[in-house]
């Protein structure tokens, strides 16, 4: 009986902890890419800029279910004969809407 109660308490603790977890690195990247696509006017960015590497440096919880993720994006852009690129560290704010994480503007 004690064993069953202990297992039950451990399972409840995992479920509660799972509900309050923030976005995974893959979810942060997916939200970032979705935000880029949503804000891409006439497909100009997607036709010129390529994301070569995306890295989540850290994620912190803030008020009202908002998470702040510091990410490093390595990209390159090709416009005609010109090529530019490099690494840029930026901060994005995310919130879960329905089943998906979205980047707040």
How far is the first residue's CA from the last residue's CA?
A: 52 Å
| Share of β-strand residues | 35-45%
Q: How many beta strands in the DSSP annotation?
A: 4
Number of domain units: 1
Q: Strands of the largest sheet, in order across it? A: 1-2-3-4
**Cα-based radius of gyration, to the nearest Å:** 19 Å
Number of helices: 3
Run of helices and strands: HHHEEEE
Note poorly predicted spans: none
Shape: elongated
User: What would you call the structural class?
Assistant: alpha+beta
Mean pLDDT: 85
Protein name: Lipoprotein
Organism: Solidesulfovibrio carbinoliphilus subsp. oakridgensis
Signal peptide: 1-26
Keywords: Signal
Task: Compile the SSE list and pairings.
Blueprint: H1 2-19, H2 25-38, H3 44-48, E1 49-61, E2 66-79, E3 82-97, E4 100-103
Antiparallel strand pairs: 1-2, 2-3, 3-4
Structure report:
Keywords: Signal. This is Lipoprotein. The chain has a 4-stranded antiparallel beta sheet. It is α+β, with helices and mostly antiparallel strands. It has one domain.
